[in-house]
Amino acid sequence: MIKIIIYAITFFVVVSMHLIINTYLAPFGIAPNIVLLAVIFLAVSKGPRAGMWAGFLLGLSLDVLLSDMFGSRTTALTIIGYSAGLLRGEWDDSSGLNQAVLVFLCSFAYLTLLIIEYAIFSTIQASLLLNHISLLQPVLNALISPAIFWLCKKIID
Fold first, then answer.
1. What confidence score (pLDDT) does residue 133 get?
2. Averaged pLDDT score across all residues of the chain
3. Of 52, 66, 98, 148, which is least surrounded by CB within 10 A?
């Protein structure tokens, strides 16, 4: 029961932090994707099923709270969560370099999935998503990932 309460509190904190950082604390519009980092951490630490559910629930919460194309984040984060979870036990999760590389690749895949979804399902041009902000976010995510993974490990364990 305590673990469920900790996960629920962490869920609300992650979504709140993501929205606050991206809305108010993003210099030049560049901010890390806290939700994506949390999904990747849960996926590699708990497995593909946990990553998939974390991606689905966190993505759904962002889709409900944000006003652009509904379902885009849910789909992309679910796919990223499941895919990253397949690496559980197959890599050295204590290495900061490994964490940074994995987060960079997952961030780039997340951006690619969003662009594909917008190109297929939205009236907004997918090319509008490609700008200095979206291209720098995978780098920023990779740079802060070792610290975020360390913090998440302390909270979950």
1. 63
2. 87
3. 66
| Tokens representing residue 79 in the block | 């796919």
Residue 142 CB contacts under 8 Å (≥ 6 apart), including other chains: 100, 101, 103, 104, 107
- List of domains in the chain: 2-156 (1.10.1760.20)
Closest CA to 112 of 83, 80, 90: 80
CA 121/CA 81 separation, integer angstroms: 22
Give the DSSP H or E segment for 25.
none
Between CA 61 and CA 88 the distance in angstroms is 25
Q: Rounded to the nearest 5 degrees, what angle is found at the Cα of 11, between the Cα atoms of 97 and 46?
A: 50
Q: List, as one string, the DSSP characters of 24-87.
A: HS-GGG----HHHHHHHHHHHHH-HHHHHHHHHHHHHHHHHHS-SSTTHHHHHHHHHHHHHHTT
Residue pLDDT, tens place only, 133-153: 677 889 999 999 999 999 888
| Structure token pair of residue 124 | 């907004």
